[in-house]
Amino acid sequence: MFEPARLRIFANPLASYRMLNIPNMSGVIRRRLLLNYRIDPQVVAPLLPKGFRPKLVRGHAIGGICLIRLEKLRPKGFPSLFGIASENSAHRFAVEWEDDSEGVFVPRRDTDSRLNSLAGGRIFPGVHRFSQFSIQDQDQNDEIEIAVRHQNEVLLEVAAREAQEIPADSIFSSLQESSDFFEAGCVGYSSRPNSCTLDGILLKVDDWQASALTVSHIRSRYFEDLNLFPEGSITFDHGLLMRDIPHQWLSKPIF
After folding, report:
1. Ordered DSSP codes for 109-156
2. Domain 13-251 has what CATH class?
3. Is 34 helix (H, G, I), strand (E, B) or coil?
4. Nearest to 242 by CA among 191, 153, 175
5. How far apart are CA 223 and CA 236, in angstroms?
6. Distance between CA 94 and CA 104 in Å, rounded?
7. Do residues 239 and 33 lie in contact, with contact meaning Cβ atoms separated by under 8 Å?
């Protein structure tokens, strides 16, 4: 089961951040799906650590899942030959905090890399649970199908295909508005179990490019949990796709 999202942490997390001094990491985002829900902000607010507030779009909070394949990931300056590859997922909420800073809060991360699961929360930010990823993505013109399982339980399933524009009923007015929204929120904070510490990390992309997705099927055990998201409080909004994007991961500076 997912741990309760109403985390018991924090006094003011903005006064207690501690940075993990990881080396700057570089690599390639081979594939990244951003699967986005619009949610009643009154439902999201109790799921966030104190000091964070939902970032709103036309009165709605934004939550979602980032499904990302990383390749050639290694300390910056190392040859790509030494890079590693992994499939990863992050359940997240768009948030703001003091001085109108913005980013995402990540209550859960999963990975198919045992190295990531061992090092997450210790060597680099964010606890990563070791899970099984099933991927169908042989041709960029065909449908992408991804399923994630943890301890034989299905966490999420999605089937999607690249599109020209986001759905007409999205709360975002255009693909560009959506892309700009998520580009601005590239700082992610994750909690540690039994700790008042939030780990922070910055995704740096010099050439941000995103296309729209037509999502034909999506299931998420987390976002379909009626104890967290009562009926009528959450609706799937749209998806975005990124491919073959050079990037860096940097520790977030201490506040």
Report:
1. EEES-HHHHHHBTTTBSS--EE-EEEEE-SSTTSPEEEEEEETTEEEE
2. mainly beta
3. strand
4. 175
5. 9
6. 4
7. yes
Q: CA 168 → CA 117, 212, 238, distances in Å?
A: 39, 12, 10
> Using CA atoms, how far apart are residues 229 and 18, in angstroms rounded to an integer?
31
Structure tokens at 19: 């940075």
Percentages (nearest 5) of helix, strand, coil residues in the chain: 15, 50, 40
Alpha helices in the chain (DSSP H): 41-44, 114-119, 175-184
Q: Which two three-digit tokens encode residue 176? A: 């560009």
Amino acid (one-letter) located at 166? I
In the chain, where are the structural domains located? 13-251
What mean pLDDT is predicted for residues 175-202?
87
Question: In this model, does residue 4 exceed pLDDT 50?
Answer: no
Q: Which tens digits make up the pLDDT trace of 29-42? A: 999 999 999 999 99
